[in-house]
Amino acid sequence: MRYTRFCSTLILLFACVAMTSQAENLATYYAGANNKKGADLKTALYGIIHNHTNIGYDGLLSAYHETDKRADGYLRDWYSNATNYVIGGPKENHSYSGEGDGYNREHLVPQSWFGSGEMKSDLVQVVPSDGYVNNRRGNYPLGENNGGTWMSANGYSKLGACTVSGYSGQCFEPNDEVKGDIARVYFYVLACYENLHPNWNGGSASQVFDGKKYPGLKDWALKMFLRWAKQDPVDDVERARNEAVYKWQKNRNPFIDYPSLCEYVWGDSVSYCFDVSLPHGQGEVVIPDDPDPDDPNPDNPDNPDPDDPVTPDNPGAHSGSIVFSQCTWTSEKHPTYGNGYTATANGLKISYYTNTSQNGVIKTDAEVRLYKGAVLLIEGAEVTGVVFHAYDSKLANMSIDGKSYAWQDKATMTWTGSMNPFLVMAQDGQSRIASMDVTIAEPLITGVEDLCRPSVLRLVFDEQGRYVGHSVPARRGIYLIREGERTIKSLVK
User: Fold this and answer.
1) Which domain holds residue 391?
2) Residue at which a domain ends, from 441, 471, 487
3) Are 232 and 180 spatial neighbours (Cβ–Cβ below 8 Å)?
């Protein structure tokens, strides 16, 4: 047992070293995107991937020998599973009257939408496909339909009225096995051509693109592509193509390198800063339903191996001081509490909102002013104690969890209890606060996972942003794991 576990530990250590090396290479390439989120992250990606080698329209056909070769040597056809084309063979650019007659180059974002320019020969978004099926797609938007107009062989691709809420026009539906690939191509296009896509208006472009720098897509299309990316995750075929593309045109698709990056730009993680040090390809961690059936003694916290040390159940507490003069504040609007500001300190999100017609804003670099009705929020952990420190003598009572608290000696206010999130509301007048001492419940971190990363505060949230504890629940769902300034997505199947 000890020998088996020791070998397993060594394997994990070597795996961690390999992932660390990959992550370091990517972290260098994507350094400009570190600690960015939302629109700023999208713009940072533009700066990284926009400048690349234009291999030319004819160069695409040569590149397909490396980017789109199936395991059996034939061409990977993105729109048909009924073809076996020899790459560069007699059916390359061959005329067609039906499926299987020849293959050509397909612009996943139709050229009629954007016109000319280097995107016409961008290897990321121009892929090989059956010529006849490509022609049936035309310049229709991508979507989902019932195949009412037409279907390719085996129902692999479909044409019909769109069934996605928000768009009812004619659309082309690719097969499920390439939907995630195509979604990540669209995300790439939005980042790589951020300077151009707001002006695309040819054909049906205005039905898909919103004419804005951010988010860039109409709501129906963005939600659909985010869903496709989740339902069809990155696989080895897609990773291999990304590497081959990089060889040819010297840029990468970041949404393949970091599978959950799209969530930090547009999705459920948009309020979190992206961390480029995430392990390569590990933006989503899949946790199996059951223990390894080949393990004769799977880990069981209720029946631990007698040879393994047991960490005492004594979580203790973690305290930290948050000084407002050291925070970097950004404006934010809360759906309930109105306009305000937010900052991150000690792994916690600190926010305050006016909730009033008065301008409860930061008057100096050293304080936060809370007027009557203004709200201060601490999110990211179970808060068990807060000591507020006054900036000056202008102070008002504050309500915490329905109970009124007053300042002691015009200097401090102390609260103890258990709240997540922690919320305080100014009751009258105004309070000028310089800093807070925050105590939070500290997680119990055990297990071999600590061989791969140092012990840091772990906080787990569900897809709706609700705090669920310090470990990922066993029930199915998508969870966000915050470890210090790092955020990792966990998918429990």
Assistant:
1) 317-441
2) 441
3) yes
What would the two tokens of residue 483 be?
A: 């470890």
Question: What per-residue string of b and e applies to 197-217 under the rule 16 or more CB within 10 Å gives b?
Answer: beebeebbbebbbbeeebbbb
Q: Which of 229, 250, 271 is the last residue of a domain?
A: 250
State the DSSP string of 432-493: EEEEEEEEEEPP---SGGGGTS----EEEEETTS-EEESS--SSSEEEEEEETTEEEEEEE-
Residue 330 near residue 339, CB atoms below 8 Å: no
- The answer to whether position 175 is within a domain reads yes
Q: How far apart are CA 368 and CA 366, in angstroms?
A: 7
Model confidence band, residue 430 (pLDDT cutoffs 50, 70, 90): confident
Pairing of strands 284-287, 486-492: parallel
477, pLDDT greater than 50: yes
Could you report the per-residue pLDDT of 57-101, keeping only the tens digit for each?
999 999 999 999 999 999 999 999 999 999 999 999 999 999 999
**Spatial CB neighbours of 201, under 8 Å, sequence gap ≥ 6:** 113, 211
Q: Provide the terminal-to-terminal Cα distance of the chain, rounded to the nearest Å.
A: 29
Burial pattern 22-51, b for ≥16 Cβ within 10 A else e, equals ebeebbebbeebeebbbbbbbbbbbebbee
Sheet holding 422-426, edge to edge: 330-334, 338-345, 348-353, 375-379, 422-426, 398-400, 403-405
